[in-house]
Amino acid sequence: MQAGGERNSTGRQRGMSRWSVVVGTVLWAVVLTWLLILRSGTESGSEDRPTDGASTAADASVDGGSGDGEQAASGKSGATAADSSQGGPPTITLNMAPPTIPDFSFEECMGGTFGLEDLKGRPWVASFVFTRCVLTCPQITLAMKKLHDRVIEENPDVMFVTFTVDAEYDTADVLRKYSEAYEPDRSRWKFLTGDAEAIRQFIVSGFGVYVKENIGESRRPGLEVAHSNRVVLVDPEGAPVGKFLATNDAEMARLARILLGRAPFPEPSPPVRFLPPGSGPEGVEIEIRGQDSSFESAGPSAADDGGPTDVRGDARAADDDFRRHSPAERAARIDRLLPGWARRLPTVNALLNATATVLLLSGWRAIRRGRRVRHRNFMVAAFAVSVLFLGCYLTSHWALQHYASERGRPFTGGEPAARLYYAILWPHVVLAAAVPFLAVRVFMHAFAQRWDRHRRLARWTLPVWLYVSVTGVIIYWMLYGGAF
Question: Does some domain include residue 97?
Answer without folding.
Answer: yes
